[in-house]
Amino acid sequence: MKDFVVIVSPNGAARLEAEAVRLAEIKARSAVPEICGDAIPQAPARGAFRVFEPQALYPDAEGGFEAKPAGYRGHSAIQRADVFDVMAAKAARHNKPSPLSPGQVAIGRYYRDLVERHACAGLKCSSIEAVRSGSGGRGGDFMDAVLRDREEIEHLRRRIGMGSAMVVRRIRPSKRGSRASISDRRLVDMVCLEDRALSDVLKAHGWSVYGATSQAVAKALGQALERMRGG
Q: How far apart are CA 223 and CA 187, in angstroms?
């Protein structure tokens, strides 16, 4: 016996059509493109994703290597879209260039991966003593890597600086409302580490989302990421 969701309007008429349309839209958004083959299941909870062609290096006739497609059975693959992919896609829909350069996106993803790796490092052992007691000197190597990651994170955060991307000190209190200043560090962390859209950053700090504020916070993010690159 199958279960059906029945929506009843005030006049007592059942409306199955609206629910069917809603479910069809969910399935359409989660549909896996044909170029990816049939091995990847349809999963509405997966969220936004991007399609890419896996590459691998293979020996060539001259004794070197060349990059060739390496997808399963010749198919493309999918990868969960992060906040940077969503930004680029949104800009493309409006026929505008991406607000961030490839180098800025790369450093943002590097910072995210670095912080995630460092945060997960403690899962390998419950204490430094346990790590150091490992055989073959591997414990020391592991701790050296953890310390290097921490130093690199601190180095990148120093480059971000202590400035503010959006400040409210020039706004009169009567017009300021609940708006709070957005620090460069908080802006970078919300986007890179929490995968939050720029509009989410503005709303979380009480700012309205419109052309001027969106452009200002996008510019501030790009400048912070550029400083992280050493520019």
A: 11
